[in-house]
């Protein structure tokens, strides 16, 4: 049976999404339908798809990970190939903007908006750049997988970091090398993590630290979407990796330049350990209707 879908297109630093609302959890798109909506030639075109569903109506598997009555809405996130992802840093800002602008949710000035995700419940607040999302605790993954990408001369050791979803960050020599990597080919990881990974290629900018803020530039190959203009969780992983490599005295605040703009990353102490927050813009671009066969 054909399905008519009203959708909104949004983006954060050029990482773009198809969003639609399904408060009662009645629309169960197949991976093939999601991939066709995200297709840039035959569909709407996007790096990912976000279904806004009330937390009480999410699938049982996701419910276990986002069990918090405080989050009225759940961000049901899918990559462009239809695969599920736990978290999306740019997407959560765009998702919050979408809920607020469409009147599905309200945010009193200064209030925190809570969003359910497969990576747990995330606090989002308005700030000067758009929105800031507290991604909570992060962790280093064991091992240093070797990263190979087309046009990079040698394999490099990467650092595995989980910020709700999996990343491998690899440092390159300079901006020429960053530009030369051909990310239209899928970079290879050895060993390949079971769940796959988003791979960030990073260079420090000169000078690295300005007024206490670290500056880096990155490109990313996203699991399930290919090269994108930005990846919020990837920027967070990249800043954490560079701080880790820089050692004692490295800043806790970072500006991460990506092909689609720049986002901010801040690490700060809380009672339950260090949290990391991501901030940046969120824009809604247009609305439309599409019929799925
Ligand atoms: N672009 C996102 C990350 C989206 C999910 C990722 N591709 C994955 O599979 O983990 C971001 O802004 O964080």
From TrEMBL:
| A Pfam family that the UniProt record links to this protein | DAP_epimerase
User: Which family, according to the similarity comment?
Assistant: Belongs to the diaminopimelate epimerase family.
- Name it: Diaminopimelate epimerase
Localization of this protein:
Cytoplasm
Q: What does this protein do?
A: Catalyzes the stereoinversion of LL-2,6-diaminopimelate (L,L-DAP) to meso-diaminopimelate (meso-DAP), a precursor of L-lysine and an essential component of the bacterial peptidoglycan.
Q: In which pathway does it act?
A: Amino-acid biosynthesis; L-lysine biosynthesis via DAP pathway; DL-2,6-diaminopimelate from LL-2,6-diaminopimelate: step 1/1
Q: Which taxonomic lineage is given here?
A: Bacteria, Bacillati, Actinomycetota, Actinomycetes, Micrococcales
HAMAP family annotated for this entry? DAP_epimerase (MF_00197)
- Which reaction equation describes what this protein catalyses? (2S,6S)-2,6-diaminopimelate = meso-2,6-diaminopimelate
Task: Say if the entry is tagged with keyword Amino-acid biosynthesis.
Answer: yes
Q: What is its EC number?
A: 5.1.1.7
**What residues correspond to the site Could be important to modulate the pK values of the two catalytic cysteine residues?**
167, 222
From what organism does this protein derive?
Answer: Subtercola frigoramans
């Amino acid at each position: 049976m054909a399905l008519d879908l009203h959708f909104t297109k949004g983006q954060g630093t050029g990482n773009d999404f198809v969003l639609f609302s399904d408060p009662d959890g009645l629309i169960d798109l197949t991976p093939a339908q999601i991939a066709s909506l995200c297709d840039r030639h035959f569909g709407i075109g996007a790096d990912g798809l976000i279904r806004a569903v009330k937390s009480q109506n999410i699938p049982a598997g996701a419910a276990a990970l986002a069990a918090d009555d405080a989050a009225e809405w759940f961000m049901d996130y899918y990559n462009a190939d239809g695969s599920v992802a736990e978290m999306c840093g740019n997407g959560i800002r765009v998702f919050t903007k979408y809920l607020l602008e469409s009147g599905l949710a309200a945010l009193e000035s200064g209030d925190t908006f809570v969003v359910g995700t497969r990576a747990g419940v995330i606090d989002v607040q308005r700030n000067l750049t758009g929105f800031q999302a507290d991604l909570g605790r992060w962790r280093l993954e064991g091992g240093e997988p070797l990263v190979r990408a087309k046009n990079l001369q040698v394999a490099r050791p990467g650092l595995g970091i989980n910020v709700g979803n999996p990343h491998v960050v690899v440092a390159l020599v300079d901006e020429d090398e960053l530009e030369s990597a051909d990310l239209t080919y899928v970079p290879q990881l050895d060993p390949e993590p079971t769940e796959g990974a988003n791979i960030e290629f990073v260079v420090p900018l000169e000078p690295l630290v300005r007024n206490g803020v670290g500056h880096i530039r990155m490109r990313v190959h996203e699991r399930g979407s290919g090269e994108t203009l930005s990846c919020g969780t990837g920027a967070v992983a990249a800043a954490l990796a560079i701080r880790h490599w820089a050692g004692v005295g490295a800043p806790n605040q970072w500006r991460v330049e990506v092909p689609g703009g720049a986002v901010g990353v801040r690490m700060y102490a809380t009672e339950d350990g260090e949290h990391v927050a991501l901030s940046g813009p969120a824009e809604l671009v247009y609305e439309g209707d599409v019929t799925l066969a």
